[in-house]
Amino acid sequence: MLTGIHFLLSYKCDSECDHCFLYSSPQAKGTFTLDQIKIVFDELVKIGTIECVYFEGGEPFLFYPLMHESIRIANAMGFRTGVVTNAYWATSQGDAELWLKPLEELGVSDISISDDGFHHENKETSPAKHALNAARKLGMSYGSIGIDKPTVEEGIDKEQAKGKPVIGGGVMFRGRAVEKLLEGLPRRPWTEFTECPYEDLENPKRVHLDAYGNIHLCQGLSMGNIWDAPLSKIVTQYDADSHPICGPLVNGGPANLVRKYDIKHEDKYVDACHLCYLVRLALIDRFPQYLTPRLVYGLS
Ligand code: SF4
Description:
With 300 residues, the chain is an alpha/beta fold. The chain is built from 9 helices and 12 strands. The longest helix has 14 residues, at 34-47. The two termini are 34 Å apart. The structure holds iron/sulfur cluster.
């Protein structure tokens, strides 16, 4: 049952982080129009199970008026709302309050702030700290997101065979992270990756929407396009087994995707997402409707 919709308001961002699985950057362009957002909201009502709407990017605060008005409408429609930001705008705590106060007045339910070394060199005096302090002072509900450079640790929990290396830091090995952050990390045989560890592709609880119309089940893995058919219809008719990428993933993970399409591959990969992402990249011209947009794969 789909309960959450996350708008990727834009792929544009003031930063270009090594770990970004969307390849967001200052060069990326485009956002929704307000009328497009309203069309989506009408579709959310038709779906009937949506409870919360998030605004992310890229960096959604680059489109502040649109984000603000969208949150206002969503709240008025009875949805819980949230935003995810890197807090680039929080140049001091006082200024951060200026940016956050209008959102607090709207009653935004959650603000998630990236607070890590990828986004901010000095964590103690970073914009993220200003934003977190401002949110606390305004009485807003907030949280921080911390992702660190990959580290190698020994597996200790029972999910991991004891002594096997575990990669810490929380980086998802998709998008730019595959290009930038793999060096020196331990790898495992591709045949071990027999399930998708993070997404419920059969019964997704939340999806991301971008301004090109793509409904992302995972970054760059599309359920369909909302500018081609109504969102409510695509969601209602979605069947993972008949989706050419999700079907194999549900029935045997990235390793099954390799076998299904007989993809040339290496012997070892860092994790399931690393293998999945590269197999999808190899299939992008065969399934352009489902593996999109190309910029999420670092392609033009
Ligand atoms: S990259 Fe593939 S394996 Fe990883 S979460 Fe996404 S769909 Fe699942």
